[in-house]
Amino acid sequence: MSIAIWPPVGPEELIKGKQECLARELEWIVVETHTILKDIRHGLQDCYALLAPIDPGSTLVMSTQRNERVKGTVTRVGTRIIKGTIHLQLKTLPTQTLNLDASHPVHIAALETIHTHLTECLDLLSLTDTPTPSNNPTQLAAQLRIIAASLNESSSLLKGPALNEVDHSWQTDSCPPVHFTPALGPNISVHLGLQESSLVLWLRALEPVDSPVHFGTKLGLALGTVRRLEHDEMDRPFRFTYSTVTDGGQKHRHGTAHPRSSGSSPSGLGTPSSNGEATEVFVREKVRVESLPDPNLMSLSAKLVALGHTLASTRRNLAAVMGEEFDE
């Protein structure tokens, strides 16, 4: 089957007609894209509102299943944990209670990054929401590509790392003692993260590599009467230091010293970690606690995925009319 044009036109006129047709198609797809971007912008504003610091926030239960090694609650407002009380009955540490200092809320790094991405996306979309938006398809495609990358990364942060993936962020992102009342002991690491829109709390009992071992412990280990708790990080040295930016990015940096409930630590761990110097430690005990999914974070995740699909379809259509390859 062939297509014939009647009346016949010359090659030059045919090329000119194709160019005019392509120009009209580009003009049409640009207008349609701007219309869709208005809906995407409204959707991003809804996502932004889900991370807004609005009381009372979400109160999440943080407790281990089938035992009471860890039991308590935390309250998330926006990107921060503003309240929390967690009772610990770990096997290698004395029974204690962690109380979050209300004057030093913990900023969750993943949520802070998502908040930054949403802000950048809305700023970019504000450039297209003007009485005379740009009709340059190349510029529009570049803006859409940046927004798509931000949405994809935000969705990945809410999903969290794979369970079988090794995550060493605790070595540099653990909460420093300043966030707790009384101040956190130097032999414990408290690290917060996200997994499938749930809050994950990692607790690690630490021991300096150069800490002297009691003769009775050595003898018990040799005879088998004393056994270390088995986990995937046992008997391996790690370089550990507290986070210096957990009070919200560059808004506040912890000083070289931190409050302590008593004098110098017998373990020798607190001082070098508090001033930014890494310390070699062993992980004596490791506990992971995951809350139930946060309703607001679940809604945020669903909205981000839906917006990502809409944006991908829009980019694919624009690339097809422009005659370019669509880069996922």
Automatic annotation (TrEMBL):
<dbReference type="InterPro" id="IPR028241">
    <property type="entry name" value="RAVE2/Rogdi"/>
</dbReference>
<feature type="compositionally biased region" description="Low complexity">
    <location>
        <begin position="259"/>
        <end position="274"/>
    </location>
</feature>
<dbReference type="GO" id="GO:0043291">
    <property type="term" value="C:RAVE complex"/>
</dbReference>
<feature type="region of interest" description="Disordered">
    <location>
        <begin position="243"/>
        <end position="277"/>
    </location>
</feature>
<protein>
    <submittedName>
        <fullName>RAVE subunit 2/Rogdi</fullName>
    </submittedName>
</protein>
<dbReference type="Pfam" id="PF10259">
    <property type="entry name" value="Rogdi_lz"/>
</dbReference>
